[in-house]
Amino acid sequence: ESKYFNCFRHVELQKGMKLFEKGNKREKIFFIKKGEVELRGYMSFNEVNQIITKLGYDVDERDEYYYMNNYPLFKKYYKEDKHDFKIYLMKDNEIAGLDEFILNDEFYCDCVVTSPDIELFELEIQFYMTLFEDFQIKKNLNDYLQLKRNVIGQRLINMRTSKLEGEKSKIKFGGNSKWQ
After folding, report:
1. For residue range 90-127, what is the model confidence (pLDDT) as tens digits?
2. What percent of the chain has pLDDT over 70?
3. CA 43 to CA 85: how far, in whole Å?
4. Distance (Å, whole) CA 144 – CA 24
């Protein structure tokens, strides 16, 4: 067990610093000992739909097609405009940088330190598989990942729905002239 200790590197960061950024390849996994980080994404609804699908959920866009076909600016809002999604808050004893944040071999969001004090350990990706060869550890890790995927997937679905329904109601009830 002590031979694995040298695989981990102690890291201390300040509030506002990033563990990883959208578009970067995964090189490390972070074990949060103390503190909080937030997963944030500034992305289009198309990107959000890809993530939701990757997490194992279906995305029904039939309603959105009606609005895109009848309101050209809604199509731009939906397909091109970027929106702020605060995806997930991670706290003490969580792991950041596993497969739940990867889309097409890249991170789909930023991971930003939100607490004034954070203490974490990083593990280079090449050591990841070696350390988690044990069947029970892999099973527990997979269960943890599945739970996290479910939470993130449901949260993204809810945020997506909320943002879209707000704009659709403005169209329906004339509350925003940009759609007319």
Report:
1. 999 998 887 766 666 788 889 999 999 899 999 887 77
2. 85
3. 7
4. 23
Round to whole Å and give the CA distance between 13 and 20. Answer: 12
Query: DSSP assignment, residue 174?
Result: T
* CA–CA separation, 41 and 48 (whole Å): 9
Tokens 């610093």 appear where?
17
Q: What are the b/e assignments for 35-46, b being 16+ CB within 10 Å?
A: bbbbbbbebbbe
DSSP string, 8-36: EEEEEE-TT-EEE-TTPPP-EEEEEEES-
| Average pLDDT of the residues in 127-131 | 72
Q: The tokens 């007319």 sit on which residue? A: 180
Give the separation between CA 5 and CA 65, rounded to whole angstroms: 53
